[in-house]
Design goal:
The chain is of the alpha/beta class. It is 29% helix and 21% strand. A seven-stranded mixed beta sheet has the order 3-2-4-1-5-6-7, sandwiched between helices. α2 links the parallel β2 and β3. α1 crosses α2 and α3 packs across α4.
Length: 182
């Protein structure tokens, strides 16, 4: 199974409530760019589902991704910025369909970094933050702490072109050339 963790695109700095912040024009372009990239690396790998936070900026990001790659979209109330990653993971498991091979999860910092850290190392400390509209693809046999490994990452660039880094090191760290013993 592959799970793509995606932070929403750039949003307005202010709104009456944080949950109501909309994507900017740049954020919409970032979301479309990341959606096209996700389609290029994940489409055709089995049944897929798109899970999104109920916050406006995440919903708008998810709709942009779905516009690039038609996916069933499900709103998951428990994947908001301050949700405990353990609670969020349980909600993601519940929202995932039977037989889904690909999950795309659109949420926020610090949750996406916490989820990545929890899935990869079963810890919450030391998680690297996500850039705006950054997607990280993890591979796992089971949605459980410490069992996933990152296999790809994408961050849309300022010019509309993204930067992509693939896992190289034996340890699984991006841009690491070790043989697994670092």
């Amino acid at each position: 199974m592959k799970i793509a963790l995606l932070r929403h695109g750039e949003a307005e700095p202010f709104a009456a409530r944080d949950a109501e912040r909309a994507l900017t024009t740049r954020g919409q372009a970032q979301a479309r760019d990341t959606g096209a990239w996700l389609k290029s690396v994940l489409a055709g790998q089995g049944p897929a589902r798109l899970l999104a936070s109920p916050y406006r900026r995440a919903q708008e990001t998810a709709r942009a991704v779905a516009g690039e790659w038609p996916l069933e979209m499900v709103t998951v109330d428990a994947i908001t910025p301050d949700t405990d990653p353990r609670v969020a993971l349980a909600a993601i498991e519940q929202a995932a369909g039977q037989g889904d091979e690909v999950l795309v999860v659109v949420s926020h910092m610090p949750l996406v970094a916490g989820l990545a850290s929890w899935l990869e190392s079963a810890t919450f400390a030391g998680g690297r933050g996500f850039g705006l509209a950054e997607a990280r693809v993890l591979e796992t046999d089971l949605l459980a702490p410490g069992l996933a490994r990152q296999v790809d990452v994408y961050l849309p660039g300022l010019s509309g072109r993204g930067s992509r880094a693939s896992r190289r090191g034996g340890c699984g760290r991006l841009r690491c050339s070790c043989d697994g013993g670092c």
